[in-house]
Specification:
- By secondary structure, this protein is α/β, with parallel strands linked by helices.
- The protein has 2 domains: about 240 residues, Aspartate Aminotransferase, domain 2; about 130 residues, Aspartate Aminotransferase, domain 1, CATH 3.90.1150.
- It has 14 helices and 12 strands.
- The chain has a 7-stranded mixed β-sheet with strand order 1-7-6-5-4-2-3, sandwiched between helices. Strands 8-9-12-11-10 form a 5-stranded mixed β-sheet, with helices on one face.
- Helix 2 packs parallel to helix 9.
- The longest helix is centred in the C-terminal third of the chain and has 20 residues.
- It is globular.
- The N and C termini lie far apart (about 55 Å).
- Ligand P1T binds next to helix 3 and helix 4.
């Protein structure tokens, strides 16, 4: 069957997942090799050295490109490695617009590394007219969007911003980590580049760190690939194999994450110790209508604000048992964390306060366990405060 006619849940299993041609092994081999034998200098089978290419990684890239309806894909050793490739691919001194609420590591690399190479301007990308003004003022080369954002789950109207990007000749990138390719396809909404931390939902089992980008822009892909080959953050074959394996269940995992997250968001909304719940699927979410328009689901991430101070937040976090207190997200097991102290600590407190990443903000990555057990766990922790 042609790749294009296959539905998503078939593609995650079969694109890149075909049996080994030599042996018939139904599972792809892990090509755990650094180099490849040549029959004559320069004469080889398309593979020279694993930093450049590896057959297991090629299969993963094939699958990921198909999931985002892209022609080209690059898999790297982390999400941050992908951020690095994309930003190095721009001419030195470029103006870059970036959403003001992004993963703490993205903020950190922009404010400590790429601020020495480019001019970075943070902006509220949910405000379309502010984005257009900034495009006119700065004439940026690139706009970086995270939607939903980490950790406030704000939603940018991707189509509106990519329309503006086209008008002003600005490359647009969407970090699609929170939705995974299952619930949102930014390239179909007009984005030039989509990226993921593969560490999260795409792999889904908290046992790999990885990143990827997909695009239909051949010249940008070529630049990024050359950078990957030169800088060297290529993903190891075993990790690519693990992601290929994890991806097979992406469709059913995302449905299960969402089902549990919906129940938990509603439970939290009705809780007397909770000040506010943010989940894109709730009607109370300020951009719920945009979420419904551009996503096919609402995902498994919830942010909520406890009634109380840092002491209460800490006590609550120390007393959950099933929810593991850990950074990261998107695995089958539920995680809980405190962005101000953990994932977003590298953002200065003043900026965090302006954004609303407060001491009573708690982030949940809802796993696929039995939801009753998860709610019992939260309820028991609430009782301790
Ligand atoms: O951790 P790494 O694979 O390098 O991916 C970085 C990254 C990029 N984009 C988003 C939206 C992310 O959430 C992350 C990593 N985030 C966490 C580790 C976290 O707990 O939020």
């Amino acid at each position: 069957m042609a790749k294009k006619t296959m539905k998503f849940a078939t593609r995650v299993i079969h694109v890149g997942g075909y049996p080994d041609k030599e042996t018939g092994a139904i599972m792809p081999p892990i090509y755990q090799t650094s180099t490849y034998v040549q029959s004559s200098p320069g004469k080889h089978k398309g593979y020279e050295y694993t930093r450049s290419h590896n057959p297991t990684r090629t299969r993963l890239e094939e699958c990921l490109a198909s999931l985002e309806e892209a022609k080209y894909s690059i898999v790297a050793s982390s999400g941050m490695a992908i951020v690095t490739l994309i930003l190095h691919a721009l001419p030195e001194g470029s103006n870059i617009l970036c959403g003001d609420d992004v993963y703490g590591g993205t903020y950190r690399i922009l404010t400590t590394v790429f601020n020495k190479i480019h001019n970075i301007h943070f902006i509220d990308t949910t405000d379309t007219s502010a984005v257009e003004l900034a495009m006119k003022e700065y004439k940026p080369k690139l706009i970086w969007l995270e939607s939903p954002t980490n950790p406030l789950l704000r939603i940018t109207d991707i189509k509106k911003i990519t329309d503006l990007s086209k008008k002003h000749k600005v490359l647009s990138v969407v970090d699609n980590t929170f939705m995974s390719s299952y619930f949102q396809k930014p390239l179909t909404l007009g984005a030039d580049i989509v990226m993921h931390s593969l560490t999260k939902y795409m792999n889904g089992h908290s046992d790999v760190v990885g990143g990827c980008m997909m695009t239909n822009n051949k010249s940008f892909y070529d630049k990024c690939w050359t950078l990957q080959n030169s800088l060297g953050p290529s993903q190891a074959p075993f990790d690519s194999w693990l992601v290929l394996r994890g991806l097979k269940t992406l469709a059913i995992r995302m449905e299960a994450h969402q089902k549990n997250a919906f129940k938990i968001a509603k439970y939290l909304e009705g809780h007397s110790l909770v000040e506010k719940v943010v989940y894109p699927g709730l009607k109370s979410h300020p951009q719920h209508k945009i979420a419904k328009k551009q996503m096919t689901g609402f995902g498994g991430m919830i942010t909520f604000f406890l009634k109380g101070d840092i002491k209460k937040s800490k006590k609550f976090l120390e007393n959950v048992k099933l929810f593991a207190l850990a950074e990261s997200l998107g695995g089958v097991e539920s995680l809980i964390e405190h962005p101000a102290i953990m994932t977003h600590h590298s953002i200065p407190k003043k900026v965090r306060d302006e954004l609303g990443i407060s001491d009573n903000l708690i982030r949940l990555s809802v796993g696929i366990e039995d939801c009753d057990d998860l709610i019992d766990d939260l309820e028991a922790a609430f009782k301790t405060i």
